[in-house]
Amino acid sequence: MKDLSLETIANFIGYSSLYLKVIFSFSISFLLCFIAIPKIIRVSYRKQLMAVPGKRSSHNHKVPVLGGVAIYFAITVVSCIFSPEMLFKVRFFPAALVLLFFIGLMDDLLMVAPRKKLYAQIIGALMIVVGSNVRIESFFGLLGIYELPYYVSVLFTVFTIVLIINSYNLIDGIDGLAGSVGILISTCFVFIFFRLFDYQMGFLAISLLGALLAFLYFNLSNESKIFMGDTGSMVVGFLISFMAIKFMNLSSMPWVMIKSAPVVSIAILIVPIIDTLSVIIIRLMKGSSPLKADKNHIHHRVLRLGFNHIQTTLIICASNVLLIAFGYLIRQLNINLMLILLILAALLLSYLPLVLFEFVKKRKGLNIENPA
Questions:
Q1: In terms of DSSP H, where are the helices of the chain?
Q2: Pick from 177, 187, 166: which is nearest to 120 by CA?
Q3: What is the rounded distance in angstroms from the CA atom of residue 319 to the CA atom of residue 21?
Q4: Is the Cβ–Cβ distance between 287 and 298 less than 8 Å?
Q5: How far apart are CA 23 and CA 203, in angstroms?
Q6: Would you call 145 helix, strand, or coil by DSSP?
Q7: Contact by Cβ (8 Å): 243, 204
């Protein structure tokens, strides 16, 4: 009885310590970002480091664009305090993050050629994949593929990281969307990593969650508005791709074995992925270049229905939650069937605003202009 009591007390102390670390890591990340952003806004106005409205812009006035600096600052500090083992094991992770931070910062300040940004993304991905051996090693039977040959694994993982970074960057088109989607994704990874007892990755996800919540407060503000810029989208895009790959690696361990891990990862990242996929499909159907900028992103389609930025963000995030829940509910199905059903559901929700817009326009016989 005495041993049982001591064990109970030890477990309570252990769990209490973990809960305190969770609270502290989240609070520090939130506060660092929350305190840093007003100072960045003041410097941005003083030095005129602002985003100038253009033809595709959804704003008609200059807005500070260095919110990503505060996000990076908060994540770096909290990760060094609460995830030191992860930083030690994945030794090239800090170097890759710094590289993407600075190339994003240079683009926000000076405009960097797209190919140079792409080169930086590829180099950052290679640091993680080759330098730290963090890569997608198996498809878990998806498309009939299990273990991947080393060089195929390296190429596919680098492609995946670059795709997710750019897909996340593409959804950063209206107030609140990139921040809200990032919050939803990081929340999912907080739950996953703590449930699988990978606390080091869990604290990384918490640092991202706290920083993005603080950023979102200012991003949705009228008086103190700020964008995350390429600095933020590159850093956040890289982090969510890294967490998705680490989740798949963890899921392949014999004591875990989550066979649906690839599709679960896709479900969590579905908004940026399906947005990029649907935009490419629309452009190809119109005979345009897949790389040509336009207003066919998911948020543009929802805006055409007359919703404002906040309403559009809520609609897209609600769709993301539904797709994640759908992926979770069908996780016991065959992995290939699961992927097909998830993609079909995502495409349906993606194109629904376009169909509704055309229906309303024909029904009312109005020539509705694009408000985006």
A1: 2-47, 67-82, 84-89, 93-110, 114-126, 150-170, 177-195, 199-219, 229-251, 261-268, 270-285, 298-303, 309-329, 335-364
A2: 166
A3: 32
A4: no
A5: 10
A6: coil
A7: yes
Position 290 confidence tier, pLDDT thresholds 50, 70, 90: low
* Residues 55-105 pLDDT 10s: 555 566 788 999 999 999 999 999 999 999 888 889 899 999 999 999 999
How far is 348 from 338, CA to CA, in rounded Å? 15
Among the listed residues 180, 208, 181, the one whose alpha carbon sits nearest the alpha carbon of residue 193: 208
pLDDT tens across 166-219, in order? 999 988 888 889 999 999 999 999 999 999 999 999 999 999 999 999 999 999
Polymer length of the chain = 372
- The pair of structure tokens assigned to 122 is 């590829």
Three-state SS sequence of 219-269: HCCCCCCCCCHHHHHHHHHHHHHHHHHHHHHHHCCCCCCCCCHHHHHHHHC
Backbone angles phi, psi at 142, to 5 degrees: -65, 130
| Whether the Cβ atoms of residue 68 and residue 233 lie closer than 8 Å to each other | yes
Which two three-digit tokens encode residue 238? 């890289």
Question: Please, which contacts does 325-331 make with residues 24 or more away whose CB atoms are closer than 8 Å?
Answer: 326/267, 327/260, 327/263, 327/264, 327/266, 327/267, 327/268, 327/270, 328/264, 328/267, 331/260, 331/263, 331/264
The answer to whether the pTM exceeds 0.85 is yes
User: How far apart, in Å, are the Cα atoms of 187 and each of 180, 203, 204?
Assistant: 11, 11, 11
* 13 exposure class (CB count in 10 Å sphere: 0-12, 13-18, 19+): exposed
CB neighbours of residue 45 within 10 Å:
12
Sketch the domain layout of the chain as residue ranges.
2-250, 259-372
- 93-110 and 114-126 helices, crossing angle to 10°: 170
